[in-house]
Amino acid sequence: MSKQNARLVLIGALTLLPIAVPAIAHHSVTAEFDPNKEITVTGVLTKVLWVNPHVYWFVDVKDESGKAETWSFEGNPPGMYHRAGVRKDDWKIGEEVTITAVAPKDGSKHLGFAKTFKFQDGHSIVLKVGGE
Amino acid sequence: MLLALFAVVSRSLERPAVRQLPAAASTFPSVVQSNEELQNLYLQTSWAKMPTPRTADGHPDLSGFWYNDLGNLGTRDANGNVRFDLGGARNRNKPPRKYPEPSEPSYKPEYAAKVKSIVNGQYGPTTTEDPNFDCLPSGVPRASTGPLQIVQTPKSVVILYESNFVGQSYRVIYTDGRQHAKDLDATYLGHSVGHWEGDTLIVDVAGLNDETWLGGGQGHTEPGLETGEGNHQIVEKFALIHSDKEHVIERYTRRGNMLFYDATVEDPVMFTRPWVLTPRHLIAGGPQDELFETFCVSLDKEHIVKPNPEDSYTCNYCKKPSN
Question: Which are the contacts of A44, defined by CB distance < 8 A and separation ≥ 6?
């Protein structure tokens, strides 16, 4: 697959709703995202915002016409990651990354709650929010 | 290639997973019916049975980093793969312990109606009417959850809040005998004066504005016990509004490596009687634990949904407020 092409894959309702919907910071996952609707995109990481109440990753993703659009992906609070040994510099600006995320419910096109980052060298970062 | 391999290995050694649950110390009841039983339960933990450090003037030393171990796991393998598992150290197959229902304020009818109207538009525990979505300080007593750091001197106790919900903030509790000024400007975290009664620091908080909630949203999480069950969610779970006549008496008691916190909230404008909140507990961090900078940036507010017939939020945890 071309490195620069956006790959957007919608995966249908393959999983049951989690029994216990986890708190991700100050709101429940399902108040913003649909855990049954996964998206996968590939792009270049441009920024990591290491802030409360959610870490955000920003990724430039090119569509089929070659136009880059900025996607953002939400995560947990930075203190939770750091105390579990996950660091901001586990993500390198400029790296190409394939992100699997759950899609927002409000129809926003360039947003997700990050689940998996796969890097070009084959290593990955998995962020599991429980109940799944 | 060798160099790259070395870099990967050294990275994994440099940042090992750091946490471990204490071994099960004793048996705990599976049903806890009252706040008194709740306090007894936490007094039986090995954290509370540790010796209590004291300052030169004989008071318990509250200084240090306080938090609730959320049971999050982080792992990193030799190939550089990283895995974060929220609550992964918890035994999810264990039946949840039954805790007392969190106490809720008793509102006068007109304010009860306002609370109900907010709750009716919530998606589960979440609504964008919650001031937390604007990254504002949580107010008192809502801010009093970990992670936080306490700095105690003979004349003041300073609380530095990290928070997982909003941005970092702080309070200075004056213990030098001063009283509240008569001309306080109302603020998010108010003005605090404290004194010791035995081993308990009693804090009087006044000068609070009406821009915060007393509870709501996800509530907060309490330490789990030493059985792998992790924390439990508490939750003054509703949109707990208050007026700028709010007045709080807080009590901080250190028992070993556990901080017991409880508070009584008066609001002569909105409440029919003072609200005694369900006691909270924090665990002392280790000597290497640090408070982190956590400024808050609100990017999620516009994406929060409301319940609708196709996507109605249902859970046992979300009961409607009585009144």
Answer: A59, A60, A94, A95, A96, A97
The percent of residues in chain B predicted with pLDDT above 70, rounded, is 85
ipTM exceeds 0.95: no
A51 belongs to a structural domain: yes
Q: Report DSSP state, residue A52.
A: B
The per-residue pLDDT string of chain A (132 residues; one tens digit each, 9 = 90 and over) reads 343 333 333 333 333 333 344 565 678 888 899 988 999 999 999 999 999 999 999 999 998 899 999 999 999 999 999 999 999 999 999 999 999 999 999 999 999 999 999 999 999 999 998 644
What's the CATH code of the domain at A49? 2.40.50.140
Residue B320 lies in a domain: no
Q: Which residue matches tokens 């007894």?
A: B40
On whether residue A14 sits in a domain, the answer given is: no
Q: Which domain holds residue B11?
A: 1-21+35-298
DSSP notation for B51-112 = PPPB-TTSSB---EEEE-----EEEE-TT--EEEETTTTS-TTSPPPB-PPPP---B-HHHH
Query: Which of A51, A52, A76, A129 is the best substitution to test chain B (most B C-beta atoms within 10 A)?
Result: A52
Of B88, B125, B289, the CB nearest to A128: B88
- Which domain range does residue A109 map to? 29-126
Q: Which of A21, A90, A131 sits opposite B82 (nearest CB)?
A: A90
Give the count of domains, chain A.
Answer: 1
Are the C-beta atoms of B23 and B228 separated by less than 8 Å? no
Spatial separation of the C-alpha atoms in residues B124 and B140, rounded to whole Å: 23
Per-residue pLDDT, B238: 67
Residue B131 falls within a domain, yes or no? Answer: yes
B285's tokens: 């961090």
Strands A68-74 and A111-119: parallel
Total-model pTM: 0.86
Cα distances (Å, whole numbers) of residue A58 to B139, B148, B161: 32, 29, 28
If you measure CA to CA, which chain B residue comes closest to A108?
B303
